[in-house]
Amino acid sequence: MRPNLDRRTLAALLALLLLFLSVDSPAAASADQPAVQEPYTITNLGYVTPYSINNKRQVVGYALGTCHAFFWEDGDLTYLRDSSGPLCGPTFALDINENRQVVGHTGRGLEEQAFLWTDANANGVIDLGEYQTLASLPGYSRTFARRINNPGTVLGYAQQDPSLGIDSRHVYWSNGSVFELTGMTALNINDQGTIVGLVAGGSVPDGVRWDNGVITPIHEDFTPYAINTRGEIPGLIQGAGALWLPVPAYGLPAGLSQLGFSGAASDINEVGQVVGGGKYLWQNGELTDIHTLLPPNSGWRSLSVSRINDHGDMIGTGTFNDQQRGFLLSPPRPKWTLLFYLAADNDLSTSYPPIFQHLESMANLPGVRILVLWDPLGAGGSWYYEVQYDADLNRFATYTEGVNRWSQGELNVGAPFTLSDFVRWGVARSPSEHYALVLDDHGSGLGGLAWDETSSRDFITLAELKLALDTAYDDTGRKMDVLYMAMCLMGMLEDAYQVRGRADYYVASEDLQTTYSRYLTGFDPAMSPAQLAAALADAYAVDMVARNKAYTISAVDLGQLDLLVSATNGLGQALAARMEVISGTLGTVANLVQRFDNQRPRGLTLADTYVDLYDFADLIERNLGGEPAIVAQAGAVKAAISNYVLYEAHASTLAKNLDNSHGASIFFPATASSFYNPANYAFAVGADWRSRGRASAGAGPGAADTWAGFLVDYFQATQPGGPDDPTPPEPLPKEYTTLPVYLPLITRP
Q1: Which of 297, 576, 615, 643 has minimal Cβ neighbours within 10 Å of its Cβ?
Q2: Which CA distances in Å does 548 have to 542, 651, 675?
Q3: The pLDDT of residue 312 is above 70
Q4: Burial letters for 372-404: b for 16+ Cβ neighbours within 10 Å, e otherwise?
Q5: What are the pLDDT digits (tens) for 200-231?
Q6: Cβ-count burial of 55 within 10 angstroms (0-12 exposed, 13-18 middle, 19+ buried)?
């Protein structure tokens, strides 16, 4: 058991321990992940020239032989048409952003016009009101749009009547207005609004960048083709592909470096992958001919790649069975992405290096990607990691900033946006069939989670947890297949209800949890979400049994949650309706029910406010046999829990009896607790602690119809005017095994 010290004292002692133990987050070691090259998937887009792809794998371009632009998504290709039929003249869709906004130009000769189409209803068709022609400069009749960033700024140019001589003025459109870019030929734009291009009228192609009206040279004789959000710029110098970097990255110095192929480096994504030379993919100093990525006997040859998205999906043209076609070339997608939120900025900091090293030992599993947010103790910084393989549990793998490690500054892991940002990043970084999110730190059922000592002991409340997961879902459209709360006392019905609709399976402990590291013992990438949830729970159970610890752990199916909530509220209503008769028996049940250790001092007492829901229902059923309506509702709760709990394990010791644990707990305190209300917990509907006289109303209109309402009635009946707890709890410390530290004895001669 942990020593009985206050949190600030523990944090200070552990900060001192870190100095002696030299426990660092992974930075440099010697093991590299073995290369396992699986074939990419190539998709035939048809007789088209694709020009752009976004991170949602939506592709736009020009459909050869039709004079129409096209929009492609999930195998469906649609010609762009307005409400009255085809757009006038040849139409070219040249770029698409993440918001389904497409730009290009349409028309012939003097009628060529730049357009912006916003697919507001996501049907892939230009509907009334979605299409707009972009304004031109005075005296310039023709406009062309070539790029659009995610905020919606469009880049292009305007031309005069050709009979007056070709005079092009490069422009950008923002919020419906057109602005001239003087002194440069604009070629591309990033999300910060930085534009790259060439000095206007120069005798040689000197690359420049534009920021808020200020033009800065990039490099002489360099033509920039693209720019990502980190300001990394691929292009062409003296006939060869090159990459300009603002700071050292990918094993290259800052400045301009050639990439080892002829022809332009035409595009770069947010993870530093570059395509160019027609057929090459460059990443981290390695050059790959994309033909070597094709599956055997694909029928494709003479591929020419032009663009790449952040997930490594590439588009271009080639020949398929000797016919010219557009293609989408996609890397193998992980079956599982595992997201670990290691909120270590507190007295648990020394327990996280073994966790991270265990994750490294599992990072070579095919079809699995492991992403981590790690915030160690102190203000030294926080990092995102893409975990690299290293079988040695006594060292870390090698990590390179900007490649598989990304500094985030000092994060507050007790803030909900830190969690939502990490989930959003993880989903964008690693599109997968399945996602699991593991939240590792202190927690306490109704007391929230993830306490951050450096950020004024901030922590994520249950309301903030819902906000974080809702925000991540709104931004990504993906819920978690598995959510594991690797912290104390989070196996409550109230906790599961907070995350409903944002995860399919939920893993947690009803009682205190003990630190451990071997999360993925027995994990197989072929597991279904239900199997992974059970495996995560079982890995913890095996570890606790080996260490002779009292423990609880369960994996539940959130698809069965609504039925359990309905049954539990029904039981609350049935109990409240007979409160005048049964309040004494409820007191007996309160003395007998399985409780969990959420109050000091440690050990199970009647002061502990979390109880096993199945055991409560069972005791009600056995002690109120003369109340058929109550017995029926208690039986419904037990049946619902049996369907809800996929996996449950527990063990007792002489010091703690957990024999009547069944996998789902609920709040049943010893006194009135007005902090338990809908503002703090979505499940606590009906907890109006200001109401009076509800218990004496019997089954009348004032009777409770929820579990929370039943609690109010119970204490008004048994403790009228009694004590009240108005303050929500805080996270409780997770139990951990202390590390012995032997300091040298220094004597003077």
Answers
A1: 297
A2: 10, 9, 36
A3: yes
A4: bbbbbbeeeebbbbbbbbbeeeeebbbbeebbb
A5: 876 678 999 999 999 999 999 999 999 999 89
A6: middle
Q: Regarding predicted confidence, which is higher, 510 or 176? A: 510
Going from the C-alpha of 609 to that of each of 372, 458, 606, 659, 706, the distances in angstroms are: 33, 23, 8, 18, 18
The per-residue pLDDT for range 84-131, each reduced to its tens digit, is: 444 446 789 999 999 999 999 988 656 789 999 999 988 888 888 899
CA torsion angle 98 101 107 112 (round to 10): -90
User: Is the confidence at residue 321, as pLDDT, over 80?
Assistant: yes
The model's pLDDT over 727-747, given as tens digits with 9 standing for 90+, comes to 998 888 787 654 443 334 333
CA distance 373 to 153: 32
The predicted structure's pLDDT at residue 85: 43
Distances (CA, A) of 342 to 25, 85, 412, 515: 11, 55, 12, 12
Task: Count other C-beta atoms under 10 Å from residue 84's C-beta.
Answer: 8
- Percent of all residues in the chain with a pLDDT value above 90, rounded to a whole number: 74
Q: Virtual CA dihedral for 724, 726, 727, 732, nearest 10 degrees?
A: 40
Q: What is the predicted pLDDT for the residue at 28?
A: 38
Q: Write down the pTM of the prediction.
A: 0.73
User: What DSSP character marks residue 731?
Assistant: P
Segment holding 51, helix H or strand E = strand 48-53
User: Among residues 221, 266, 271, which one has the least CA distance to residue 243?
Assistant: 266
**More confidently predicted of 34 and 595:** 595
CB 331 within 8 A of CB 305: no
Could you tell me which residues come within 8 angstroms of residue 272 by beta carbon, excluding any fewer than 6 positions away?
Answer: 228, 232, 249, 250, 283, 284, 402, 403
Tell me 136's DSSP state: -
The residues, ordered by sequence, that sit 6+ positions from 372 with a Cβ below 8 Å of its Cβ are 339, 340, 342, 356, 359, 384, 385, 387
Name the DSSP class of 719: S
The percentage of the chain sitting over the pLDDT mark of 70, rounded to a whole number, equals 89
Q: How far apart are the first and last CA of the chain?
A: 41
User: To 5 degrees, how large is the angle CA 726–CA 729–CA 732?
Assistant: 165
Residue 1 has pLDDT above 60, yes or no: no
DSSP letter for each residue of 385-428: EEPPP---TTSPPP--BTTTEEE--S--TTSHHHHHHHHHHHHH
Contact 55, 311 (CB under 8 A): yes
